[in-house]
Amino acid sequence: MSMKSNNIVIAGFGGQGILFAGRVLAHIGLISDREVSWLPSYGPEMRGGTANCCVCIDDKPIDCPLVTEPTTLIVMNAPSYDKFIDHVKSGGMAFIDSSLISKKSERNDIDCEYVPATQLATENDISGMANIILLGKLIGKTKLASLETVKEAFEQIIPKAKNHLIDDNMKAIKIGMEYKI
Amino acid sequence: MSNQSSPKKHLMKGNEAIAEAAIRSGCKCFFGYPITPQTEISAYMAKRMPKVGGVYLQAESEIAAINMVYGCAGSGVRCMTSSSSPGIALKAEGISYIAGSDLPCVIINVQRGGPGLGGIQPSQSDYWFMTRALGHGDFHALVFAPASVQEMVDTVCDAFDLADKYRMPAVILADGLLGQMMEPVHFPEDYDFNKNTEKPWAANGHGNKRKHNIINSLFLQPDVLEDENFKRFKRYEIVKKNETKAEIDIEEDTELLVVAYGSVARIAKAAVDMARKNGIKAGLFRPITLWPYPEKELQKAAEKVKKVLVVEMSMGQMVEDVRISLKSRIPIEFHGRTGGIVPTPAEVFEKLKEMDGDDNA
User: Fold this and answer.
1) Nearest beta carbon to residue B11 from set A27, A39, A66
2) Strand order across the A111-115 sheet
3) Strand partners, B308
4) Quick check: is A27 in a domain?
5) Average pLDDT rounded to a whole number, residues B76-80
6) Minimal CA–CA distance to B88: which of B120, B61, B69, B62?
7) How close does chain A come to B1, measured CA to CA in Å?
8) Do the beta carbons of residue A74 and residue A8 sit within 8 Å?
9) Which residue, of A59, B29, B34, B121, has the fewest CB within 10 Å?
């Protein structure tokens, strides 16, 4: 379990599961008994454009839930990439869906992980779960949580009637974790 | 791994937490009308109220909703309504009637940008409206300004109790940021609200066993109306003496005192921490009650400081209460963002650096 402050921004289009991926992270923090906050964008961008959310996971009470300098960024479309990549804190990480974003960052003070998440999701018959594949890559890379904790988080969020989605989500997590760039 | 000994925490949006806390505080009736960014309160109430034997009613308008609250409060039942800035403005007439009839109720305002329909992003530009002019006539409402989802839960409980105790409306003044964000919350098992508030004034059926109770705000005789207002303001004096609340984070050598409430206080806290790390002697004063304003607490906190910075998501409203409290004895500066823009810790820190620099120049 990584004990440092995690200030995460997840950004992309509405419908890509941006807010859901954020909730998974927030629940991981909750299960791990850490301080967490989850702040969605709910403005005009929710009505047909970009969506983003800020998740803070920390060991001390969270002051500002609004993340302006993310330690970790997950991006799933080009406008969000352009908007956030320069704000990633030096020494931080960016997880980029390279199926949808063709640009490469010139920053050498951050760790950019290019994962063709949308393509991997389609190939593995779990289309729509690119968000969770990127999350899997993040968890594999940062050791933010164990697979058991991740599963527990899905169990807390996914309604019982849709239980079958837990296996698909865990499959997506593992694909992300095992993907070698 | 989860710690079994710690209390069970739920991850909830501020809006949902307010609704759940209200139900656990004995709120039996909710009357509302949807508006962003508070609609989750209504949605949560719609789902939960029928399951706990309460009433959820979506009225045809904000005006109808507040008048339903008026009637419900008159019958002695704990009740609540919620809205966001322009919706609260529509409720103003009803709130004045409720205050003029000395009735308790809880009103949630999850603020958005104004004036007019404004925007739907967070704002604090209803400060004057809530603390000064919540309706026509001479009256006040209790105004609470929580800064976290947990504090929203805790203040809802206090709001119901104090509204009952002083027979006046209580407002929870939140904003879009607090309403929409999720944080872990804990609900005490045995909810510590005053379950036994006697309401001998309630119009809840006399059964031919007592005199009629009349709920009214119309007093055509000037001397009678004046007397009603005098009585009410005597009660307000007690409220002012007993019910102020603030969180104070200062050190012996604090020179720059930041004053902020609600979500902005958290941003200010982050800025104060940045300042302290950079050798600037900053501290934070966070009012939790906005009416009554924690004047004495602020005076004490500012006793030894050189300058005060007020930060708000408005063009500068609470700053006037800070000036009144401190009688402008020390320089008071203001930093505000408006229209739905949330100030960043970095910009508040910049302002603190500037103020500190002026001082040492």
Assistant:
1) A27
2) A111-115, A93-97, A72-75, A6-13, A50-58, A35-40, B182-185, B10-13
3) B257, B332
4) yes
5) 97
6) B62
7) 5
8) yes
9) A59
Amino acid sitting at position B268: A
**pLDDT (mean) for B11-25:** 96
Residues of B in contact with A26 (CB under 8 A): 11, 182
Pick the CATH number of B247-360 from 3.10.420.10, 3.40.50.920, 3.30.9.100, 2.120.10.30: 3.40.50.920
Q: Coil, strand or helix: which one is B19?
A: helix
| Interface contacts (A, B; CB < 8 Å) | 72
Tell whether A47 is covered by a domain: yes
Q: Which of B53, B46, B130 is nearest to B84 (CA)?
A: B130
Cβ distance A63 to B346 less than 8 Å, yes or no, reads: no
Mean pLDDT of all residues in B118-133: 96
CATH code of the domain covering residue A82: 3.40.920.10
- Record the pTM: 0.94
Q: Is B43 on the interface with A (CB under 8 A)?
A: no
* Beta-sheet pairing, B256-259 with A111-115: unpaired
Q: Does B194 touch chain A (CB under 8 A)?
A: no
